[in-house]
Amino acid sequence: MEAKDLFDIKMVFSNIPDILRFLPVTMELAVGAMIFSLVFGLLIALIRMKRIRVLSQIAVLFISVIRGTPILVQLYVTYYGIPMFLKYLNIKNGTAYNVNNVPGIIYAFVALAINESAFNAEIIRASLQSVDKGQIEAAHSLGMTYFQVLRRIILPEAIEVALPSLGNSFIGLIKGTSLAFTCAVVEMTAQGRIIAGRNFRYFEVYCSLAIIYWVITIIIERIIKLLEKKMAIPEQIVETGKEGDVA
Fold first, then answer.
1. 109 against 88, higher pLDDT
2. Same domain flag for 164 and 199
3. CA-to-CA dists, residue 180 to 79, 159, 174, 183, angstroms
């Protein structure tokens, strides 16, 4: 038995181009779910901060349930639950809509977006609360409405605080798309499983996937660091004395 019969390093790199053909599906899921989760997460965070009756309690329950259950379970619940609900609506309304026509990527998107929104809601809420209340009070004294203060003062400062955590969430979301195969979505990990099923070289295929996800993570981390530098508020330079002064 030769060494390549146990592990073929060439196969690890030869698998990468075939797997990368499904990178757009992975990124489409991740970016779409992240955008939705930011909007929905901001709404949940504002509801909790304003302590709106009933809605605030629903938001707390939602966050608790989503954060307390595995994403894999949520994917299965979405994949099997939404068609059941649509069939119920068909029976109730007497329509003949075929729920089997709904693409699996829709179910994966819904599950990933809802899961991410529960975590991002807490990140956003903590970031909003970190803004100096004195600035908010000063803005109100100038006659600004709450939404004007939110748009001009709170959000710009909160985004800078939340960016590192949201970046980590996005990286986790990209890796979480590897579970989308449970909804019959062929993304990078699903394609890897298909390749491994053909040649039975599972170890090499999963090494290929590990390299791809690792490189994507590095790229996203660099982008986030660049955004942090661009959005950072320059520190005020305190002059301790004029140039040429003699003690």
1. 109
2. no
3. 10, 29, 11, 6
Q: How far apart are CA 214 and CA 175, in angstroms?
A: 10
Which residues 6+ apart lie within 8 Å of 235 measured at CB?
Answer: none
Residue 160 has pLDDT above 80, yes or no: yes
Instruction: Looking at the structure, tell me whether residues 75 and 154 fall in a common domain.
Output: yes
Q: To 10 degrees, what angle do helices 155-176 and 23-50 make? A: 140
- The DSSP secondary structure of 77-111, one letter per residue, reads HHHHHHHHHHHHHHHHHT----GGGS-HHHHHHHH
Other Cβ atoms within 10 Å of 244 Cβ, number: 5
Q: Encoding tokens for residue 17?
A: 């181009």
Query: Do 18 and 97 have their domain in common?
Result: no
Indicate whether 240 belongs to any domain. no
8 A C-beta contact, residue 124 and residue 49: no
* Torsion sign across C-alpha atoms 220, 32, 119, 80: negative
Mean pLDDT of 123-130: 91
Read off the pTM.
0.84
